[in-house]
Structure formats: C-alpha cells, structure tokens
Amino acid sequence: MIFNLYFFVFISYILHNICVLAEQFPRSEKNGQELLLCRKCGADVADSYYLFSKPSPGARKTEKQHLFGQQNVTVQTLVNPFGIKFEVVTAEKARCDNIGPNQGADSWFPGYSWRICACPHCGQHLGWTFEKTDSIVEKQSSENIKTFHGLILRNILGENFTDSLIMMPKMYKM
User: Per the database record, which ranges form the CULT domain (predicted)?
Assistant: First the structure.
C-alpha cells in the first residue's frame, strides 16, 4: 500500500515536471499549423500545411471551416455508390499505405483514379489517394497536381485536440 502511494507521488512529480517543461518550450508551430493524426492509433499522417481546396463536382455539400490551425479549410460531403457519406478534406501530401490497384470508376474527382489510403501504422482507413489519369495538361495551377489525398474527417484528429484530452483525474490533483 505504501509502495502505491510512493509510486503515485513519483508519477505525479514526473507529470508535473513534463507539463512545466512543455510550457517553457512550446512546440514550434509554423503559422498555426498542426499535425493530423490517425484517430485509431495516433500516428501522424499529414501536416495541416498541405491542406488545400480541390473541389469535387460530385460534392453534396461544400463548406469552409476553421480546422487544424487553418482558416477556411474546404470540407466536402461526398457520397459513395453505396450511399455512405464522408466529410473529406484534401491534402497535397499525406503518409499512408495505398491499398489495391488504381480504380477509375466512381471517382469523385474526374480525371483522377483512386486507391484506399490506410494508416501506415495500424491500417485504419484514412481516405483515398487520387492520381491524375488524364494526359491533358491543365492551365490552372491547382489542376497540375498529379497526386493528392482525400482524408476522412472522422478518421483523423488534430494534435492540438489530442493534447486537450490528457488530464489528471480530479482525485489526484494537488
């Protein structure tokens, strides 16, 4: 019993010192950006710096939101052929394992094929990787993107949100 008390005091001391150090040395954020994490395992899968707007003509709804330290992030509601709705943000770069061959059918982005994008750590479905299939060179700079990712909002978290979840139980606070 006394061991448990000493162990608790020791852990509390360590956690307190970590919090003090974290306040003294805040994360180096660039323009309010943050990492996007896999909701299932917490692995970092993208940086909010790479979020961009890639409108889909098949979007049921498109809106701008303040997400992941960025203003006016485009969130699109996309529906697959089975009627399942996904709220998706697009990113130029993401760390994911692409599963299966490229599929041209039922792409939400004309001129792009898609593959499943899975978390490289736990295999959770994060969204899709879209690769350009048209050989026509587009005039708009945003259309010159050869590969991008559509990330499902409910399958990712911002690192700042996860930081707010870690707290000591009330009975252990000093």
Answer: 33-160
Domain count within the chain? 1
Residue 119 in any domain: the answer is yes
Least confident of 16-20, 61-65, 158-162: 16-20
Checking if the pLDDT of 110 tops 80, the result is yes
What pLDDT, in 10s, does the model give residues 113-166? 999 999 999 999 999 999 999 655 454 444 578 999 999 999 999 988 766 665
Domain containing 68 equals 35-160
- DSSP state at residue 164: T
Element at 127 (helix H, strand E): strand 125-132
- Whether residue 15 is contained in a domain is answered as no
Which of 154, 146, 106 lies closest to 130 in space, CA to CA? Answer: 146
